[in-house]
Each structure stands twice: as C-alpha cells, then as structure tokens.
Design a protein that fits this description.
The protein is an alpha+beta fold. Helix content is about 55%, strand content about 20%. It has a 5-stranded mixed beta sheet with strand order 3-2-1-4-5, covered by helices on one side. Strand 4 and strand 5 form a beta hairpin. Helix 2 packs antiparallel against helix 5 and helix 5 runs antiparallel to helix 6. The termini are far apart.
C-alpha cells in the first residue's frame, strides 16, 4: 500500500524552513530601501494626497461634498496577488460608506511589500522540492498570512505620514473638515484602526 505524505505536516515543515521569522530581516531591508529613497517616496505620496484634497475642495465648492468626517486608507488585498501594494484613499462625509459622492484615489506602497513579493517568488521555486504535495494555492495562502505582518507595518508608516506630512499640506487645511475628523487604516469596508483624530491635540492637552 502506497503511503502518501501528510499534507499538513509537509506544509508545516516547508513554512518552518523557508518562511518562519524571515519577515524580521525583510522589514530591515524595506526600512533601508525607504531611507535611501525617502525624498522621492514621500514626494509622490504627498502629491497624491494633495491632489485628492484639492479634488475634495472643488466638490465642496460645488456642494457635492460636505465636511470630511473620515479619511480611510484601505488595503486592496487582491493587489497583493498581482504583486502590488495598493491602498485606496477615500474621503467620506458623515454618511461614511453611504456617502454617494466618491472622492478617492489609490497610492502605491509597493516598497513596503517588495520583500513579500520576493518571498512569494522564492516559495514557488522551493515548492518543487515537495513534488505535488505543496501547490501554488498553498503558497498564496502563506503569502496572505505573511501579508498581515506587512499590513501592520503599512499602518505604522501611514500613521507617520499623516501626522508629519499629510495634515500639514495647505490643501488639507483648506478643505472643510469635521472637528471630529478621523483618519483610519484597514481593509476595504472591513475592520479599521484610527491612526489620527482631528481633535487629538485637544485631548492630549486636557
């Protein structure tokens, strides 16, 4: 009787050998890349955010958009499979997801995901050692699991960009905003984390 390998056991050994804890060094690589290219990366992101603020201002002047209550950075998870780190930015009024007047654009955070894409390519090559036991679908599931760590990294990066650069843009200050405006990061129409509140300085001073 032919004894087939235990799928879960083989998959676990595969992950132990090629995946576990690799993100630590990969994050260091990403950080080094950002430091070396900071001026260019920051400039592109500021430009995208500035354009969206200006678009919102024009919509407000035309009475198509009320005060901005929420700014939402949402990961487009499907972009990971296409080896892109796309985040969508939406400006919402008090109606949140029910805001009928769309004011959105995408920004690329590929530089924070490049090592994840390299890992995916490496795993697809390494899986050949395991015959048909490990499939491309298994590799995709592993990458999605690992991507959660990268999402946290992106959240921290965006938090810094918002506080240090985005909210200091003249276009952001000109835009009509709620006194309780919240900036959030998460997955599209899913769980979110507040990374900035318009009144947070008031809270800190109390």
């Amino acid at each position: 009787m032919i004894k087939y390998p235990d799928k879960e056991e083989v998959l676990q050994k595969f992950k132990n050998k090629y995946v576990d804890d690799i993100w630590v060094n990969d994050f260091i690589k990403n950080d080094e890349f950002y430091i070396a290219n900071k001026e260019e990366i920051d400039s592109k992101l500021r430009h995208k955010f500035d354009l969206l603020c200006k678009k919102c201002i024009e919509m407000q002047k035309s009475n198509l958009k009320g005060e901005v209550n929420y700014i939402y950075f949402s990961l487009l998870r499907t972009s990971i499979l296409e080896e892109r780190g796309d985040f969508r930015i939406d400006f919402y009024d008090e109606n949140w997801f029910l805001d009928k007047e769309e004011c959105s654009d995408n920004i690329e955070l590929d530089f924070l995901y490049n090592t994840l894409f390299e890992l995916e390519s490496s795993l697809k090559s390494k899986k050949i050692e395991y015959g048909r036991t490990i499939t491309e679908m298994d590799v995709e599931y592993i990458i999605f699991d690992e991507a959660d760590k990268y999402h946290i990294l992106c959240g921290e990066f965006l938090k810094d960009m918002v506080k240090e650069q985005f909210i200091n843009l003249p276009s952001y200050k000109e835009m009509k905003r709620s006194s309780n405006l919240k900036i959030l990061v998460g997955e599209f129409m899913d769980e979110t984390e507040i990374i900035y509140e318009e009144n947070e300085k008031e809270i800190e001073s109390n």
